Amino acid sequence: MKATIDGNALHLGQEGLSLYESGGYGRPVKGGLRLAPEEGLYLLWRNRITVTGHDAPSLLREYSRTPGFFRRYLVYRDLRERGYALQTGPHDFRVFRRGERPGKGHSQYLVRVLAERDLVDFDRVTAEVATAGNMRKQYVVAAVDDEGELTYYEVKVDHLPAPDEAETGGQAEGEAVGAVALVPVAGAEWLSEAGFGKLLDSDRIMLSPVEALALMDDRRLSLVRDDVPLSREEYFAAAAEYDAELLEKAAVYADLRRRGHAPKTGYKFGHHFRVYIGGIQHSPMLAQAIPAGTALTMVAISRSVRLAHSVKKKMLFACVHTDGIQYIEFARIKL
Fold this sequence. Notes:
By secondary structure, the chain is an alpha+beta fold. α2 packs antiparallel against α3, α2 crosses α4 and α7 runs antiparallel to α8. The model has no long low-confidence stretch (mean pLDDT 92).
């Protein structure tokens, strides 16, 4: 079958409709079949069609003048070789279940193609995940590295469960020392039972700044410095001098606590928190607090996900907005 270039697409006559019927290629139009550039190049590479004035290398050169085309083609070819039918669309590709195709089946994935150094805008990702969810599809990022290797990530906006009952506990008084708070053990044993702090010695519990701030917000902790009462705002200002990320970290810590989880520092794993759930001994999640409007490279996200998976944890990016916190999970998948 011979195709002709028609603007930013290829056009086949009526005989091309057999490609749509058998493999879900292209979109039927008046007089034949319209092929997206990725589809046309793939079919030419597989010797399924010919293109007037072009072989596969020259057509690749032609289309690669459009930024991002080559990596989209690599993903298209990979998914086709894995047995999927797919169509181009606003999310780069709409991928059908194996054995199904356009007109005879339903798409399962919406795929966004990114290069390893591309910035991931978390606000945009959240919106696209929501769109995919409304369409009852899984949202997938296909990351293409500099050597053309592909990695697929499923992305979810994780609505973490809320506790059945509010967390209970007593009242405590302590002293601010630098950025931390020290609380006498006597009368404050409930802190350790609830997963707050660690013993500095047999007499005192040391609370991290995020722990102290969460307890002050709940009016369960009062602090002094040099025997002078310290307000929450005064303590925050003093602690923030040691930690430029304290605002976001404190917001995420408090939110996880309200949801019934027990966050602890995730420093050893290179992230803000490791998160315990329901009293289990293993923390199933790592969480990184990030301000609204943050964008990270796919390299940075890949690094975080690989580390989390290597220690059998989920990787959550906690985006701090004025109206709440959204937890975005990236997880490697095999298609």
